[in-house]
Amino acid sequence: MDAGEIKKLLLSNDPEFWSCLKTLTGSARDFEELFLLSSLRKKAHARKLENPNVTAKKIRLAIVGGYSLYPLHELIEHLCEVDGLPVELWQGDYDNYISEIMDDDSELYTFTPHVVFILPAERRCTYTGHLTDPRELQQAEAQRAVDGVLDLARKVNEKTRAEVITTNFMLPARHDLGAFRSRTLGSDWSFRKWVNLELGLNAPSFLNICDWEFLANRLGGIAARDERSWFESKQPCSSALLVELAREAANLIAALKRAPKKVLVLDLDNTLWGGVLADDGLEGIELGDTSPRGEAFKAFQKYIASLKQRGVLLAVCSKNDLAKAQEPFQKHPEMVLRLDDIVSFKANWEPKSENIRAMAPELNLGLDSFVFVDDNPAEIEIVRQFAPEVTTILLGPDPSDYVTQLADCRLFEPRNITAEDAERTNQYRSDAQRKALEATVTDMASYLESLEMESVMSEFVPVDVPRLSQLINKSNQFNLTTHRRSEAEVIAVMNDKNFAGFSVRLKDRFGDHGLISIIIGEKVGDTMKIDTWLMSCRVLKRGVEKEVLNELARLAKLKNCTRLEGVYLPTSKNEMVRDFYGKMGFTLTAESETKREFELKLENFQPATTKIKIVRRAYEPS
Amino acid sequence: MNQAEVIAKLQTIFDTVFLEPVVLTPAISAKDVPEWDSLTHISLMVSVEKAFGVRFRVGEVENSKNIGEFADLIIKRKLEP
Question: Rounded to two decimals, what is the model's pTM?
């Protein structure tokens, strides 16, 4: 596939154009290549050749900054749209960002953006005094530069409740000042490094840093800049870095709207160790510090272990005999990964696509949360064809590149690491134990009783906001409306008296499940409309949903409501709650392809009893 | 390389960048090509510099009034050591 072929598809109005565009965009590295693809995309719109796979609501994205924002905006728009997140753009004028943000009546605010991307001017991030001034003076000015950016971000957020992304600052790449540059905070080199560090460490949770310093460093300081393009058209950087900057921005925007992947499924032979276990035997596989190749495989395992520490679940899928495949995990002295690191271990002769499909219900996760890694193109192809929701990574021929490949795939980047992420592996493991117990206890009621469940219900509180937003954005199955909300939008709900939002935490004698359910009710007259009702599938069949309804009814009555109104909005993933309201005693009032509406009169509502002890209720002193 | 050869090579670049075919002549200029706006221009120049292995000096491209003058500029820059 190349530019000529995709043009032909466009000229013949073939919808195949869009999937080609996605493939080519993914591999495009050069500015002109990406720009051409973007032009073709716009022409497709002009020709009314629409992308069948893009149905998402447009994200309203505003870009402001101290540079010309053309053609950066074009690249960002392209990357977001091709990624399935179309944007509606508003660009500020060149170097007008401060007044655009500070002026309450500016067009930026009439645009009512969901996301605001700020590129503060680097020429304002420089020490104006003398290189040999006292350190305190220099540091005070650097602090002002940090505060300047934070103030802009805060103002935008207060005014719009939008998510804010700001770039930090590129470092100089020329020899000016020589070794002296690192001996004073007055050099641009030290000054900007200090500002970038402080900016990142002090960024509030609504602020996302687009790490321009890192991107430029990754590309190479000299390749990152192009003075001529600054003089000619006020470009912020070289066209090569512009591509990286746009990709990073698009990635951050996607991360605001999408959950990271949750499971890494690993092949064994020539992925975790060198050689073929069945042929070479436990002693014959290459792994560990005795050979360079063995060392590379061990380093890859160490990297995978670090992903697990971040909360990624690890699974194995191998064409092997199960007992044989598990042997290295138990007996090989150089194995970093051990059996208890693996939440699901599939070693058999079934197609890998089927094995991965089987993992999804076991772990209560959608297939689109899975990433599959293998060195064998045939296995990758099977999974691509028969489990297309799974993201696949084909490892290259050299194991020393494996870590790089996985680290640069950008699939496991946490935005705000919550303590609960790291706990998750343990939760899943005790889930397995729980299922074993479930099998031994004969009736459900005594099983639930034996769990000794305790629950805390809480109104939305600031400290929960990252976790609330995270769950709202990643929960798919037990989710009645799939309304997504950014952290800023959660805060808006929290502060609005017409909303009654609360979260539910659950623990039992096997462990703490953390925050597992979120409900948002909106009072409209005498009705409490259920805007959001979602729950983690890990705690299905425990009675949590009954307690939630009890709580919802209680809060509704407190707000003088006489009825609850619930709606089910079907998606490809939430079929399981299609009849949920009906089962909870609601009456179906209206039904269409895209919507099922229910109501519950509170007059005769009787709270259900469950085996859960409610330790605290929402909106009550603890 | 003479002007005609340069224009022939430019033609292949324009064929890639523009969707509607444009037949380049020495007299043609940006205003004759609807798709050739300031955004496309930036992309076009990046492509031309890579294809010919030249680097224009600051501000000089905009002094070329048409494709003929632009081709001459490419030749001039190519002749530089």
Answer: 0.69
